[in-house]
Design brief:
Rossmann fold, disordered C terminus, 3-stranded mixed sheet
Length: 354
């Protein structure tokens, strides 16, 4: 596989994957397709936008004819599918958008791959990146999510991702399409859109704004550094077994309130404030509807079979993350103001491709 289509490559995790593949595999042709919704930001990829092995296409994965045209023009033989609506709160307010992008968009890509590859699947792969939220929720005394855990989604977001997972498996089982699925835990790191907890709180602490905490902050999440996730995707893409599912987790379970206090301590330190000074900004708010209590991933299959494990523990990763956001305040300000959305026209002009 030399011509790789990466969907959603201007987003948070997608931009890390695009950068890794462009830099690590100069012999590959990397095609990044992204609709550039609010979460797509080409400023995330300024450092590689002129690389000779990189092409950007502004398009909607739900536009089947355009997707097929991209497959044909660039002779795509590998897909890394990351494009998705991913914010749970938004899915509660607008489930139709999540169903369209996450389900029908995935179906569009699957059908394009099937038609273009015409069952000549040698050296082809459709790799679908999903979430641990499809598994539902764990209690505190339960074990971890494994690849055999029964699906039990609770939010419109997780339901849409569960449906897209099922479509990928159906295309593998029905048409023999070579496919792999991974389900990952919560990601954090540079370039994350600041509606998500960690960058939102870093930015709010910086600006002395309230830190809204759902319920009592008792919900538990497993946190994975985005660059570690990108490394896992690289390994699985090249060495994973077709038809398999792999869970990717950080082995970093944290209660939300404990996580928030680590963020506060770290940001206060970098800003020269007294330790814990910004805890006064914590504001408890009404819990989110259908808020799952705990997610926790068992990544032992990935570790044992392919040799991957996270490189960072959370305290080290959060230091790197806080430092990045504070050193890239212009990026944060561009995102929060909406100025980042002008970058496509500034750099690419009126063309759909570079």
């Amino acid at each position: 596989m030399k011509n790789i289509l990466i969907t959603g490559g201007a987003g948070f995790i997608g931009s890390h994957v695009v950068r890794l593949f462009v830099n690590k595999y100069p012999e590959y042709k990397i095609v990044n397709i992204d609709k550039l919704t609010y979460a797509g930001n080409l400023e995330n990829l300024k450092d590689i936008e002129n690389a000779p092995n990189y092409t950007f296409v502004k398009a909607d994965i739900c536009d089947f004819e355009t997707v097929v045209a991209v497959f044909v023009k660039h002779n795509i033989d590998g897909v890394l599918h990351l494009a998705a609506e991913s914010h749970v709160d938004r899915s509660i307010k607008d489930p139709f958008t999540f169903a369209k992008t996450n389900v029908l968009g995935t179906l569009s890509l699957l059908q394009a791959a099937k038609e273009r590859w015409k069952e000549n699947y040698n050296e082809k792969l459709f790799y679908h990146i999903s979430t641990d939220e499809v598994y539902g929720a764990l209690q505190f005394d339960e074990t971890l999510f494994t690849e055999e855990t029964k699906y039990n989604p609770h939010s419109p977001y997780s339901a849409s991702k569960a449906s897209s997972d099922h479509f990928v498996r159906a295309f593998h089982d029905t048409y023999g399409l070579p496919a792999i699925i991974t389900n990952c835990s919560n990601n954090y790191g540079p370039y994350q859109f600041p509606e998500k907890l960690i960058p939102l709180f870093i930015n709010n602490i910086r600006n002395n704004k309230p830190l809204p905490v759902y319920g009592k902050g008792e919900n538990v999440r497993d946190w994975l550094y985005a660059l570690d996730h990108a490394r896992a995707i690289d390994i699985i893409f090249h060495k994973g077994k077709v038809g398999e599912t792999y869970n990717i987790g950080g082995f970093n379970e944290w209660k939300n309130i404990d996580l928030i206090k680590v963020i506060i301590k770290t940001v206060d330190k970098f800003l020269g404030r007294n330790e814990g000074e910004s805890e006064k900004l914590i504001t408890y708010v009404t819990d989110r509807a259908g808020h799952d209590l705990r997610y926790a991933i068992d990544s032992s299959k990935l570790k044992n079979e392919l040799g991957w494990q996270p490189s960072l523990q959370f305290e080290e990763g959060i230091e790197k993350t806080v430092k990045w956001y504070l050193e890239n305040q212009q990026w944060l300000d561009n995102v929060t103001s909406g100025a980042y959305q002008e970058y496509y026209e500034e750099y690419y002009g009126q063309k759909d491709e570079k």
